[in-house]
């Protein structure tokens, strides 16, 4: 995560656009243990700008695992793939929910690489999904 200054109005825009969810693992900020963070999709140290099109709402876990990564190796396709970019890609083209909606499934090299590198099915997130599913609050629309 960059220490780049982000105006309050831009922060609000990013978080409002995400409707309270992490744009990677789809966790609800309303039920998270820590507040949502701003993620530079293309990190500042890789040339990313602090503009709306390069900012995403991310939970602490996803943001920590992502760090300055922008790509990774997909062992199924045997190719390097870009990480999921919430401003340029559609979630449902790269991911799906398991039958019980507690696990994310990577459908494409981008989806699989993002799933592995950001650990989108880490234990705490899966547990939260199970609880929220039983309360009728998961998966998000």
The gross shape turns out to be: globular
- Tell me about the biggest sheet? 2 strands, antiparallel
Unreliable residue runs: none
DSSP strand tally: 6
Order of helices and strands: HEEHEEHEEHH
What number of structural domains do the residues give?
1
Strand order of the largest sheet: 1-2
Portion in beta strands: 15-25%
SSE class: alpha+beta
**Helix fraction?**
25-40%
Question: What does the oligomeric state look like here?
Answer: single chain
**What Rg is obtained from the alpha carbons, in whole angstroms?**
15 Å
Mean pLDDT: 95
Distance between the termini: 27 Å
In DSSP terms (H or I, runs of 4 or more residues), the helix count works out at 5
Write the layout of secondary structure elements.
Layout: H1 8-17, E1 37-40, E2 55-58, H2 60-66, E3 71-74, E4 79-82, H3 91-94, E5 95-97, E6 104-106, H4 109-117, H5 123-134
Antiparallel strand pairs: 1-2, 3-4, 5-6
How would you describe this structure in keywords?
141 residues; alpha+beta
Describe this structure in a few short sentences.
This protein is α+β, with helices and mostly antiparallel strands.
Question: What do you see in this structure?
Answer:
- The protein has one domain (8-134).
- The protein is built from 5 helices and 6 strands, in the order H-E-E-H-E-E-H-E-E-H-H.
- The strands form 3 sheets. Strands 1-2 form a two-stranded antiparallel sheet. A two-stranded antiparallel sheet has the order 3-4.
- Helix content is 30%, strand content 16%.
- The mean pLDDT is 95.
- The protein is α+β, with helices and mostly antiparallel strands.
